Amino acid sequence: MRKYNAPRVKESRGVQILTTIWLVPFIAMVITLWLGYQYYAKIGSTVEITFESSAGLIENQSPIKMRDVTVGIVKKISLSEDGKGVIIRARMNTEVSDYLNVKAQFWIVHPNVGSDGISGLDTIVSGSYIELYGKKEEETTHTYVGLEKALIDDQAKGTYYILSAPNSYNIKEGGHIYYRMMDVGRVERVGISPDGKHVNFTILIEKEFTNFINNKSQFYARNNLNIDFSQGNLDMTLAPLSQLVNAGISVYTPSHSLDHNYSISKNTIFPLYKNLSQMKAKHLGIGGKERVYQLSFNEPTTKLTISSPIEFRGFQVGYVTEIENRYNEQNQSVESLVYALFYLEAFQNENRLKELVQKGLKATLSTSMPLIGSQFIDLIFDTQAPSKIQSHGTYEQFPTIQAISKPNIMDNLNALISKLQKLPLKELLISTTQMIDQNKKPINKLIKNSDKTIKGLNRTILNFNNTINNLNKLTSNASLHALPDTINFALYELEETLKSIQKLSSSYDGDSKLSDQLSVTLEAISEASKSFDKINKMLDRKANALIIGDK
Question: What is the DSSP string of 268-295?
Fold first, then answer.
């Protein structure tokens, strides 16, 4: 009997590879290959970077970034062969392959807590990472020596300047730059100059303040404490806490220079002054070419210190860099070798300085502050004994002359005290006391007699004043003033009477005796009249002349 609805099975007559059961693994394989291709297409070259330490980097976790974009990952960290550093092997992305050349720079960014704040704050959560800086060129190398500090980016938002000073003045990286007490930048680098003679500072002035910096600008280290007592007012300013630890730098630019184009030439190095007072001092040739000379002194230099100034006609033209003292057994004295740095541009150039030495320029010790006695080196002319700069081993020797000893204020004060001490003040005081005791009674009697004498003089002066008053009253009497007029009138009448008698007698003979007597009488009366005229004039001029005389 035939069965219905039974399945029919077709017999396979060959091997079939592509079946629906293989479709799922095939698709999975395609996806895997695609992902693999994407992964390997993104992976670039492997680089090796040498650092002093790993600074918190972790294998297969710490990224490599460029402008905050992840461009690689740290794959392996191992010690260098000499054990003095670590080698970081990192896989870079292909997108930065063109930046892997000799201009590429790597450094580690990690959290750092300092007095100026916290740097690398983003690494507290994400961990340390490596920062890449480079310029796009053809890929050339895969081995690098990493930087221990962040690279100064010349494309930063601001301008970099170089300062130079004899020492650091406690200024550290991260310190602030101030212009008119406004924060305008920061200190990026502090390091010793290649020749080892200075400390160089690289500072960044933010872009909005760069127009306040020109070749007339001057820089000085800010004081932690400023005290000003000018015009009778006490003004005390304490620096911020960050400056107390790291110190800061202030910049002074003359106001008139802001209106002119005082551009800064390339490779300009600004001097950094120790403080505001040093900046205000007079300088010549600072910031130009320099030369260290050796100076020999056979006199005490105990008050000459390193950084003591070298002055020429009141201007600072250098400073002392080193002092060596040695004992001279022959003359039993201490000789001093002083190494001094000269600003050659203060004398135009080195050849001009040598010409001045040939004309008598020499170095001598001088004292700037008599009370303290601090010394400095002064350059003076000694035309009586011209000299020249001589070679002396490594350094050239600058001629010196012994200082002329001048007594200062302290010497004069000591001499005065010595003279006062030699005075017999004690004996003089004892003798004076004894003399007063011995002559106490005579002195008292003399004082009493002096009082009596003064009283007698007072009475005499009073009597004399009374006499003068009485005389004034007498001479002021009206009758006394009228007396000369009365006498003159009487004489006039007498003269007229005699004239009448003369006329009467004229009738007699001229040789008569009466006539002669009358003539004699008239002459006597005329003389008397003249005398009374003189008296009258004298009384008119001085009313009391008859009493006190006409003197």
Answer: -EEEEESSHHHHHS-BSSTTS-EEEEEE
